[in-house]
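Whether sequence alone determines local backbone shape is best considered at the level of individual chains. In the encoding step, the backbone of a single protein was reduced to a row of integers, each denoting a local shape. For completeness, the protein is quoted in full, as a sequence line and a line of structure tokens.
***
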Amino acid sequence: MPGSRSRLFGGLVLAVLLALGTTPAATAGTAVAAAGAVPPVGTAWGEPGPYEVEVDIEAVHTFYRPRTLGPSGERHPVVIWGNGTGAVPGIYSSLLRHWASHGFIVAAANTPTSNFALGMRAGIDLLERRDADPHSVYHGKVDLEHIGSAGHSQGGAAAVNAAIDSRVDTAVPIQPGPLTDPDLTDVPTFYLAGQRDLTVWPALVKALYRDSGHLPAVYGEVRGAGHLSSIGDGGNFRAPTTAWLRFWLMGDENARGFFFGPGCGYCEDDGLWSGWDRNDLAQLVPGPAGT
């Protein structure tokens, strides 16, 4: 595995083996952050996070970010975003703003043809330069050690394609198109399908998931969702994607038990999911301490 990916996955496993985890409900309602940490939100991943949001629309990217970066000395993890075919970031604005309210810097490529993920990966390059620039608002505020890729439809395929970059630590392909190959990457991946998606059938998403046996992968099929159900505020895709990103990029232990361990929270949520599965490597990720 590339170095940054190995460090991330190994570090999280080691953390729970050292009994640093808590049960998902242990700090529900908590809103006080330790110095240098993104504030916890309990398990309220579908609700707005603790940060006011700023949107910077530029020629090549649109950035969704906390208005005040690093108020307690924290650095903010990065999510690079890929649009669906013919779409622009504004179509997904409420979802991307939601992630920014939870402390992420979202670099959305302003392209309607995101499949090869070139613009997405360029967002990392740009944030690296700005983090190093003492005149930039991003200076010293970007957590470049924790980067996720996400996208919808064509951009969902691009989320997997972007993860070929060793700087990317996890991927969230939402109703991903077929022009990708999971063998290109080895990061933990959360595949999301819509039960009533007639554009990208759930069977197509599940085929990508089943081709991901070499990495920790989870498959979630959102009950009743069509292909456009994830646009706008993300609908029922919003909370689980936020929880996944907070776990892998922020080490949010409140989210661990919803994905991992015996009787995981989302495993048993039939109201949200019409289909749910975890592959063998995902089942090896430890659950909360004591489970």
Summary: The radius of gyration is 17 Å. The helical segments are 3-17, 93-101, 118-132, 154-162, 202-210, 238-250, 253-259, 280-283. Strands lie at 53-57, 61-66, 76-82, 105-109, 142-152, 170-174, 189-194, 217-222, 273-278. The first strand starts at residue 53 and ends at 57.
